[in-house]
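ok trying this again, last paste got cut off
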Amino acid sequence: MDFKILCSDLDGTLLSTKSDVSDFTISEISRIRSKIRTILVSARMPQSMTYLQARLGIQDQPIICYNGALILDGAKEVFSAEINFSAVEEVYRLAEEHQIQLGLYHKKEWYVEETSERVKKEMNYTRTEPTFSPSSITLQNWSKRQISAHKIMLMGTKSSTDAIFPLLVAELNKHMNIYRSNDTLIEVAPKSVSKLSAIELLLAAEESLADVISFGDNYNDMEMLRQSGCGVAVANAREEVKSIANHITLKNTEHGVAHFIKQHL
């Protein structure tokens, strides 16, 4: 297979554990690095991606954060799109009604109201620290600064997220992309962006999506996999993702991306 760009999701895909890549993956990315650009594409915030860039030796490449809402190339901001602020306020209102905790993200800022098992896991998995602040205060601060969210994470129980998800879709779908990360988490990003739109922004003049091989496991990876020259799903991916992929490799815990690279690139 002949490609110019490799784009990979992180959690559940490139990462062999919850927070790191394997030595095998590092070795395979290193082997192809001079011929194929490797771009990390994630819902994560910047500082929870840059340490992985360093581990892989690809700091010279851009990163796509927040599902495409923020693209950084080193210290340079290539692209930024925020969720409409009034829509963020409506998410906060609905979350309060359903007793769901919010994670509010803007560039390198992450705010939560209080610690919880979910927050502790996020801190451990992403190696980042939040600022603890009531969401109402965070939104007041953002309003004064005239900024908004690149991402919102809603953290609840299965029943509370089951209840709020259709309301979010019905009331706010025109302003944001809304998807379930799992039974208790909902992630929200600006409507105008996706992982695919971010990849398209990073293509050189002589490049096209046919030059891209992409790897993923979740709903927010489907468009990227479907439109790339080759879309590869890991074996642990959701069934809907595997059904549209060109190939299926081993599970992320079995270093599936690295195995595919070794066999085909």
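PB: full thing came through this time. The chain has a mean pLDDT of 96.
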